[in-house]
Each structure stands twice: as C-alpha cells, then as structure tokens.
Specification:
The chain is of the alpha/beta class and about 300 residues long. The protein has a domain of about 210 residues: NAD(P)-binding Rossmann-like Domain (Rossmann fold, 3-Layer(aba) Sandwich). Helices cover about 40% and strands about 15% of the residues. The protein has 9 helices and 13 strands. A 7-stranded parallel sheet has the order 3-2-1-4-5-6-11, sandwiched between helices. The chain has a two-stranded parallel ribbon with strand order 7-10. Strands 8-13 form a two-stranded parallel sheet. Helix 4 links the parallel strand 5 and strand 6. It binds nicotinamide-adenine-dinucleotide and uridine-5'-diphosphate. The site of uridine-5'-diphosphate has 14 residues, from helix 5 and strand 8.
C-alpha cells in the first residue's frame, strides 16, 4: 500500500514509519520539521519506497495514497504552548486538509488524538465513553480543544462524506528519539539525570500518569488501522505512577546522587490519568508488553548515546 504519515519525522511518526517500511509498504512522510528531525528518518532517505515532503499541513496538498496516519501536531506542552494559535490551526485547518485529502482519494484516515480530550478527569480510569473535563480557555486548550475538534471533524467527515476513519486516544508514550529538550516528563528527567542536573518535579509530584513504551503503541496503531472498528479507542499502558515515583525511579537507574527539586505546577495540569483499555483488548486483542523499567532502560541508552556523543 501507499501510506502517508503526517508528522512522520517526529517521535511516534518515525517509529511508525520504521514498522510500515519493514512491512514492505510505500511510505510518504510529510512534516514541517517543527519538532521533527531528519535524523529520525535518515535511514530511509535513499530507499526508493520512501518519499519525504517538507510541507505544513495548514496548507492543502494533493497526493495519491491508500491510507493516512495523521500525527502532525506538537505533543509536548512546551512546544504546543510556544505558538498556541498555530497549534489550533494545525489541529483544525490541518486536520480538515488531511480529511479533505482522504475524502478525495478515498483513503482510510487515522487520527492520532489524545487522552487530553478527557482534560483533568473526574472519572478514573478513563473509558472512551467519558466526555471529559476540559477548560476551554486555559493554556492547554489550544491542544486539547484542538484535538477535540479534530475528533469532531473526523466523525463528521465519516457521517457526511463516508470517509473511512480510525480514531485513537493516545496516553503518555515515551521511548528512544524523544527530543532532549522536548519538555515532557520522561525525556526531561532522563536528560537531567544524565547531565547531573536536578530533576525538576512540578508541584508536589503526587499527580499521576501512565507510561506506554513506543513499540507497544505502534503495534496498537497498526492493528486499529487494519481492523473494522472506527473508535475512538484508548491506547496506553495502565501502569500508573506518581511523577515523584517516576523521578525516583529514573534517579535510581541513572544517578542515585542526582538531586530532586520541586517547581510550580503548571496551570490545568491533570491530577491523575490512567487508560481503561478494555476496548483495545476486546477489539484488537492488544495490550502493552513492555514494562516501565525495561522501556526506561532502552530510552536511557538512546539518550546516553546522544548526550554523551555530543560531548565528544
Ligand atoms: P512530535 O512532536 O515528536 O511529533 C509531531 C510531528 O509533527 C513533528 O515531526 C512535527 O515537526 C510535525 N508537525 C507539527 N506541526 C506540523 C504542521 N503544521 N505541519 C506538518 N508537520 C507538523 O510528537 P509525537 O509524540 O510524535 O506525537 C505525534 C502525535 O501523537 C501528535 O498528534 C500528538 O498529539 C499525538 N500524541 C502523542 C502522545 C505522546 O505521548 N507521545 C500522546 C498523545 C497524543
Ligand atoms: N512534569 C514534571 N517535570 C518536568 C516535566 C513535566 O514534573 O520536568 C510533570 C507535569 O507537570 C505533568 C507530568 O509531569 O504533571 C507529565 O507531563 P508531560 O508534559 O510529560 O505530559 P502531560 O502533562 O501532557 O501528560
């Protein structure tokens, strides 16, 4: 198949492309390199079945493809809050452009949505039926309301125009190739511990997240894309940790002497988050296989190679 991956030079997109190329597909990677980098897809650049297009999805584009994995959007709060209006444009205009493309060429369309659509949840763990608790005027709204509109657009293109959609709600995912300055918690703590800097816990660290390793997530993506259900579907690892526990774990694994310091909690930071993955288990026979310790080891190795490589 000929498959388009928007945001393909980013963290998740590049891991997805590795899997699609290994399966023998033809892949078109489309990215504006805001948070993505050519380094992530370097090994495919000379492959005749791979094509890279530098393009911003807020502008329309004409391509002929069979499937579209739509991932283009900065995922870290630091990056999506840097230019919030652009984040909304990417989620709304960009998603509309990609749905328009799917409609024109009759491609199956996969939306990378997020657990952020549940906001600061008052239901725990979160099932897909839960409608969320989102502040529509806060500093996270450009992202979480943007993704909520992206879901609405997907379902309206489906109902109104018959576009074949798949919608996944991704919970915090980590792994090799996250940017060292990404700003998300796993990459921050690992980079800080390796550089012998203090690990910055926001608030008192009692807020929770559930961390999924990237290879598990990509397996779920491909299964959902190729099954008959449209979603929305939660994908994530139900193993839930406080942020302080995560800091202590990474401190222990890298640098027991590293200091842990506390910084102010950002506005609207969700207090707890854990996916209910019953739907993924029943529909896809999917559940995560990589435990947090094992996934962190693999991620630490990648960061160590990059950070210590840069010093030489
Ligand atoms: P990322 O920032 O590494 O990747 C996003 C990619 O999209 C980058 O390559 C970036 O350059 C590109 N991009 C951004 N705006 C664009 C635009 N206007 N036009 C073209 N390209 C653009 O983030 P990621 O972690 O790989 O996330 C990928 C997708 O998954 C995002 O849609 C994100 O919202 C979603 N998601 C990720 C997580 C997670 O934990 N990693 C959780 C929930 C949802
Ligand atoms: N966080 C932290 N220190 C950091 C970065 C993040 O304590 O250096 C916290 C953040 O406040 C949040 C959690 O870790 O409670 C997860 O943050 P991240 O940005 O990774 O993802 P999100 O909040 O979007 O789930």
């Amino acid at each position: 198949m000929r498959i388009l991956v928007t945001g393909g030079a980013g963290f998740l997109g590049s891991h997805l492309i590795d899997r699609l190329m290994a399966q023998g597909h033809e892949v078109v990677c489309l990215d504006n390199f805001y948070t993505g980098t050519k380094r992530n897809i370097l090994k495919w650049l000379d492959n005749p079945y791979f094509e890279l297009i530098r393009h911003d999805i807020t502008e329309p584009i004409r391509l002929e493809v069979d499937q579209i994995y739509h991932l283009a959007c900065p995922a870290s709060p630091v990056h999506y809050q840097y230019n919030p209006v652009k984040t909304i444009k990417t989620n709304v205009i960009g998603t509309m452009n990609m749905l328009g493309l799917a409609k024109r060429v009759k491609a199956r369309f996969f939306l990378a949505s997020t657990s952020e659509v549940y906001g600061d949840p008052d239901v725990h763990p979160q099932t897909e039926d839960y409608r969320g608790n989102v502040n529509c005027i806060g500093i996270r709204s450009c992202y979480d309301e943007g993704k909520r509109v992206a879901e609405t657009l997907s379902f309206d293109y489906h109902r109104q125009n018959g576009v074949d959609i798949r919608v996944v709600r991704i919970f915090n995912t980590y792994g090799p190739r996250m940017l060292e300055n990404d700003g998300r918690v796993v990459s921050n703590f690992i980079a800080q511990a390796l550089r012998n800097e203090p690990l910055t816990v926001y608030g008192d660290g009692s807020q929770t997240r559930s961390f999924c390793y990237v290879s598990d997530l990509v397996e779920g993506f491909i299964r959902l894309m190729n099954c008959d259900e449209i979603g929305p579907m939660n994908l994530g690892n139900p193993g839930e940790y406080t942020i302080l526990e995560l800091a202590q774990k990474i401190q222990h694994m890298i640098n027991p002497g590293a200091e842990i310091i506390f910084k102010p909690l950002p506005q609207d930071d969700p207090k707890q988050r854990q996916p209910d993955i019953t739907r993924a288990k029943n529909w896809l026979g999917w559940e995560p296989t990589v435990q947090l310790n094992q996934g962190l080891e693999l991620t630490i190795k990648d960061f160590r190679d990059r950070i210590e490589g840069n010093k030489q």
